[in-house]
Amino acid sequence: MASRGGPRAAGTDGSDFQHRERVASHYQMSVSLKSEIKKLIYTHVVIWLLLLAQMCVGHLKLLPHDQVAMPYQWEYPYLLSILPSLLGLLSFPRNNISYLVLSMISTGLFSVAPLIYGAMEMFPMAQQLYRHGKAYRFIFGFSAVSVMYLVVVVAAQVHGWQLYYSKKLLDSWFTSTQEKKKK
Which residues are listed as membrane-spanning (predicted)? Predict the structure, then answer.
């Protein structure tokens, strides 16, 4: 190696250290996946707050029932879907695999299952609306079944992507722990 003003070692231009400055790919992937999952969790929180607001307005009778309908039965267990999101956020700071696995399992139980039940619960009303054009429940002038089906479709996509990215993040974390064990 060369001193500050002295000759440089033969065969090097001083840039041979750059290969050591790259971040391992699984660490890069972990950071980007955490970012994507956080965006999905924040989207889920917005959906959750809208459903909570609709339930509060319906039960507390803040607005007439012709403006905001009473909630469907699937919305009550869906309120528990905030727990998996919180577990997911808790798993990020220390790459806690246990919390992430619990988050994934409880997402299926508290988020996806109520959405499936909700789609089945609202299907007869959607069929009646489609065949006869009759709706009996409304949310600000729109058919409640149409609005809630839109919520179900968006929430299902959010939770589906959340599970997909969580699985990829889990794989990334396992890769990093396996490499640490090899060393």
Answer: 40-62, 99-118, 138-158
pLDDT (0 to 100) of residue 36: 96
Whether 136 and 113 have beta carbons less than 8 Å apart is answered as: no
Q: The tokens 């509060």 sit on which residue?
A: 56
**112 within 8 A of 159, measured Cβ to Cβ:** yes
Span 38-68, pLDDT tens digits: 999 999 999 999 999 999 998 898 888 778 8
Beta-strand (E) ranges in 85-173? 138-139, 142-143
CA distances from 154 to 100, 101, 115, 172 (A): 22, 23, 10, 27
Flag whether 157 is in a domain.
Answer: yes
- Residue 139 pairs in a beta bridge with 68, 142
Parent domain of 143: 35-182
Tens-digit pLDDT profile for residues 64-82? 877 888 899 999 999 999 9
123 found inside a domain: yes
Sign of the C-alpha dihedral, residues 25, 31, 37, 39?
Answer: negative
9 found inside a domain = no
**Among candidate residues 75, 88, 70, 87, the one with its CA nearest the CA of residue 49:** 75
